[in-house]
């Protein structure tokens, strides 16, 4: 088991080493993953304000980025702000040339890191030879890495998100390591490994032992981040201690629960685990999240995309099922505020969400 320490306190050191990706100083090694349909600017900013040191935008398609025009209705896709930096842009595609051009658009938009998605297990993505499909074709995957690294300025790190292979066959394992080793040789700064295979999708446990094997394989000087089954602060610390990896990316576990990052900050600094946020703390953050969404999408368009967040936030309420039903119908700030007035008026203790809330497949 790796012993993780930091010089943060001379008397009681924190349980981590500060994370660095290329020349980008991250610091605290618990970060927010890219989440399809979720990790837009409001969510990333809320996570940052609650202790996430780094985040990734929701995955974007290279073809879409290459053809994207500067219009008010589409500006939210590439929007980022100084407060949330460093933030990474994640990219997915099939053709190396177009992939590189998409990466160039992310650089121009101001993202501090460019992340290549070789992990998405969604059926329609695989059918178009994108995401996790590339784990079956190392030559194409590495050509994507090469062309992306060539077009991205040297001072901007390129990283990769992978799963442990297409399946559990020996051939799949060999292809995984061919891509892993080849990508590092080409100058990739860090690789995130999800402990499930592509065909496994989100079924069954994430195999953390594989993460330990990968970290031992690459050695101490190459950065490996872990992903999979990180639903509590304790699980984040446990993954790092059991595997020796350099950091973890919290995915489904932080949707509607940005407090997981401040909880991680506490236990990684040897402090008691904070209580679940009270209803008034929840109310304030939920309202703040909606107001940020209005800034990004406009007052008339923010309500509908915010429903899914309200549903996730409801899992921390002691009457979660009833609150969930109320959030599922909101269309605007007035209706959103009415839900808060009804369910969050009294400052009762909150609850920690159950793992049942994490069944949605949004992590690519």
Describe what this molecule looks like in 3D.
This protein has 13 helices and eleven strands. It is an alpha/beta fold. Strands 3, 4, 5, 6, 7, 8, 9, 10 and 11 form a nine-stranded parallel sheet that branches. The chain has a two-stranded antiparallel ribbon with strand order 1-2. Strand 10, helix 8 (233-243) and strand 11 (247-250) form a beta-alpha-beta unit. The model is unreliable at 5-10 (pLDDT under 50).
Describe what is shown at a glance.
With 364 residues, this protein is an alpha/beta fold. The protein has 13 helices and eleven strands. It folds into two domains: 250 residues, TIM Barrel (Alpha-Beta Barrel); 65 residues.
CATH fold category name of the largest domain: TIM Barrel
The CATH class of the largest domain is: Alpha Beta
Q: What amount of the residues lies in strands?
A: 5-15%
- What is the count of DSSP helices, taking H or I runs of 4+ residues? 13
Number of strands: 11
Q: Could you say which overall geometry the principal axes of the C-alpha atoms support?
A: globular
State the share of residues found in helices, binned by percent.
25-40%
Structure classification: alpha/beta
Report the sheet with the most strands, covering strand number, pairing sense and barrel closure: 9 strands, parallel
The tally of domains stands at 2
Report the span from N to C terminus. 29 Å
Task: Give me the CATH architecture of the largest domain, please.
Answer: Alpha-Beta Barrel
- H/E series: EEEHEEHEHEHHEHEHEHEHHHHH
Radius of gyration using CA atoms only: 20 Å
Which consecutive residue ranges, at least 5 long each, have pLDDT under 50? Answer: 5-10
